[in-house]
Amino acid sequence: MFANQPKGLIPAALSNMGERFGYYIMNAVLVLFLCSKFGLKEESATIIYSCFYAGIYVLSLVGGLIADKTQNYKGTIITGLIIMTLGYVVLSFPVFATADNTAWLLTVTCIALFLIAFGNGLFKGNLQAIVGQLYDNPRYSAQRDSGFQIFYVFINIGGLVAPFVAPMLRSWWLEAHNLIYNADLPALCHQYLSVTDNMNTQNIDNLYALASQVGGQISSMSSAAEVSAFCSEYLKIFNEGIHYSFIASVAAMLISLGIFLWTKKGLPSPAKKEAVATVKYTAEEKAAMATEIRQRMVALFAVLGIAIFFWFSFHQNGTSLSLFARDFVKTDSIAPEIWQALNPFFVIILTPVIMWYFAALARKGKVISTPRKIAIGMGLAAIAYLFLTIFSACMHYPSGEEFRALATGVRESMKTGTWVMILLYFYLTVAE
Predict the structure, then answer these.
(1) Which of 107, 297, 332 lies closest to 214 in space, CA to CA?
(2) How crowded is the C-beta side of 135, counted as CA atoms within 13 Å?
(3) pLDDT mean over 291-300
(4) Averaged pLDDT for residues 191-218
(5) Residue 140 to residues 137, 325, 342, 363: CA-CA distances in angstroms?
(6) Fewer CB within 10 Å: C terminus or N terminus of the chain?
(7) pLDDT in tens, 71-89
(8) How far apart, in Å, are the Cα atoms of 22 and each of 161, 246, 355?
(9) Residue 416 pairs with which residues in a beta bridge?
(10) What pTM, to 2 d.p., does this model score?
(11) What number of other Cβ atoms are within 10 A of residue 53's Cβ?
(12) What is the pLDDT of residues 206-250, one digit of tens each?
């Protein structure tokens, strides 16, 4: 796999690995963080998540245009790393959200997310363009596919470690304050502190029961002031631990920046293409070329249309699948964010296997075409979600809101084990 690869591949992959570390922390925690910090409804949190990830993809076009216009690809990459770092710095400040400051604090959070998305747009596509330039050398051109597979594996090493960071720091910070983690408590605490939400008797009972489990000193005999004090303290400590994971993202970004600055001289700079001499064509040649271009564009947009639906389903991992893990999967030993590590884990494990399998088929003259691979991937992704749908129906799961309103004991008895998420992410990763 590593034979006959250009020297710049590993430094570029290491630079990208640190950036992906921060990216995968955000993918794992963003929706759950917005809910636990600001008390947002799941629908509002997922809209912010969706806008953030749409920004990452759309702003990649802006980053490419800037690099092409300035012909300064390395400078654009460095600027992107710095801007992303600033975004994570803003998120790392553990300011407690209250009714008085939520409006401006949420605005600042969204600005930080924009900085991360914009910096990512300046960084990601242009670094990949430089990696592609490494293989324009005829000596390495035959290794292009395997080179990008190696690059992709390094991305997923950062993604494998990242989802463990926020839960680990959060649990450590809670334990330092004689509290322990519970996925259901933040929503109940926000509901109790809210001046607009009406908390029914069952949810109040759930709050008392869970508070006693995590180390809180409240019960049905406690005054409203005591319950409010516990809820505020738990939310404060709970979310401070997540803020500290963004400090880890800052450190990872600085490492990526340092590696890129140290090794950038050994990386190519995409050169501006020379102007091509004007060639005159006959009317018949122009018509034939126009037909061919239309056919190619139709094929291109067909593939893009299929890809949109695949990533539409795959990126549920940071929204509906995170919420499913929080509400319906046992979280006493595995926090819901950690499930995000399964995807990069399976990528690292399965990539060499899949590369070997495709190479073996090619040697036998049984090459699988790209359209067929796409179809297989779409089919496997559909199977993954069909499995989760059938499983949820067999378990008679209600909506998340209805499920959270059930008594604590009833919910715990209905939660599923870890095997569901393992199987689900296995299918999604093979499809990817």
Answers:
(1) 332
(2) 16
(3) 90
(4) 86
(5) 6, 44, 32, 20
(6) N
(7) 888 999 999 999 999 999 9
(8) 10, 8, 28
(9) 329
(10) 0.86
(11) 21
(12) 999 999 888 888 887 788 899 999 999 999 999 999 999 999 999
Q: How far apart are CA 167 and CA 336, in angstroms?
A: 9
Q: What is the 3-state secondary structure (H, E, C) of the chain?
A: CCCCCCCCHHHHHHHHHHHHHHHHHHHHHHHHHHHHHHCCCHHHHHHHHHHHHHHHHHHHHHHHHHHHHHCCHHHHHHHHHHHHHHHHHHHCCCCCCCCCCHHHHHHHHHHHHHHHHHHHHHHHHHHHHHHHHHCCCCCCHHHHHHHHHHHHHHHHHHHHHHHHHHHHHHHHHHHHCCCCCCCCHHHHHHHHHCCCCCCCHHHHHHHHHHHHHHCCCCCCCCCHHHHHHHHHHHHHHHHHHHHHHHHHHHHHHHHHHHHHHHHHHHCCCCCCCCCCCCCCCCHHHHHHHHHHHHHHHHHHHHHHHHHHHHHHHHHHHHCHHHHHHHHHECCCCCCHHHHHHHHHHHHHHHHHHHHHHHHHHHHCCCCCCHHHHHHHHHHHHHHHHHHHHHHHHHCCCCCHHHHHCCCHHHHHHHCECCHHHHHHHHHHHHHC
How far apart are alpha carbons 159 and 80 in whole angstroms?
19
- Is residue 424 over pLDDT 60? yes
pLDDT recorded at residue 33: 94
Residue 272: burial class (beta carbons within 10 Å; 0-12, 13-18, 19+):
exposed
pLDDT exceeds cutoff 80 at 333? no
Query: Residue 335 pLDDT > 60, yes or no?
Result: yes
Position 423, amino acid = L
Radius of gyration (C-alpha) of the chain in whole angstroms: 25
